[in-house]
Design a protein that fits this description.
Helices cover 33% and strands 21% of the residues. It is built from six helices and seven strands, in the order αβαβαβαβββαβα. It has a seven-stranded parallel sheet with strand order 3-2-1-6-4-7-5, with helices on both faces. Helix 3 (65-71) links the parallel strand 2 and strand 3 (79-83). Helix 2 (35-47) packs parallel to helix 6 (159-175).
């Protein structure tokens, strides 16, 4: 085996990325405090051609030096928009027939490995504050909740790690149907 060089990776240009068919998933970041987490979510979203990132509440927005440090340019490729109120955003997305799921530990959550996305639907995934998670008011508005099964003592993952796990899982399930 030989490690590939950067020019062998056939990376898309910014314009090619913007013209590419996107994975029918949007990410909602609500009240995310860490600029590095925000940047990491941008980078993950670029990797899997995510449609859009919604930045809500206290979540910082680009341009920002600390977000850029982790995003490595993904703020230039992934579409994003700021929405002050996550509840209004969830209601608006549902009116557009987007299925909205919180990624949270709640009663009757669907474990990620049991969640089967439909190929003809658009999804929005809500990720909440690093300490408090997704708000109960947001959870009430969602179509359901997805939980990442965890077997250790912490039962808590970093927001950027959670995003990567859930996005990869849904991407590979949806890819089979594309």
């Amino acid at each position: 085996m030989r490690k590939l060089s950067n020019n062998e990776l056939e990376r898309k240009s910014i314009e090619d990325f913007k013209q590419s068919e996107k994975t029918p998933i949007s990410i909602i970041l609500d009240d995310i405090r860490s600029l590095h987490n925000i940047g990491s979510v941008f980078r993950t979203s670029d990797a899997f051609l995510i449609e859009k990132i919604y930045l809500c509440g206290i979540t910082a927005t680009p341009p920002n030096k600390e977000i850029h440090k982790t995003a490595l340019g993904a703020t230039e490729t992934v579409a994003w928009e700021y929405q002050k109120d996550v509840l209004t955003l969830i209601e608006d997305l549902k009116k557009e027939h987007t299925l909205v799921y919180a990624v949270e530990q709640v009663e009757h959550a669907i474990f990620l490995d049991n969640f089967i996305p439909k190929s003809n639907k658009k999804y929005a995934l809500v990720f909440g504050n690093e300490v408090f998670g997704v708000s109960q008011d947001a959870i009430k508005l969602c179509d359901g909740c997805i939980e990442i099964p965890q077997l250790g003592t912490k039962h808590s993952l970093n927001i950027s790690v959670s995003t990567g796990i859930v996005v990869w899982d849904l991407f590979q399930k949806l890819k089979k149907d594309l």
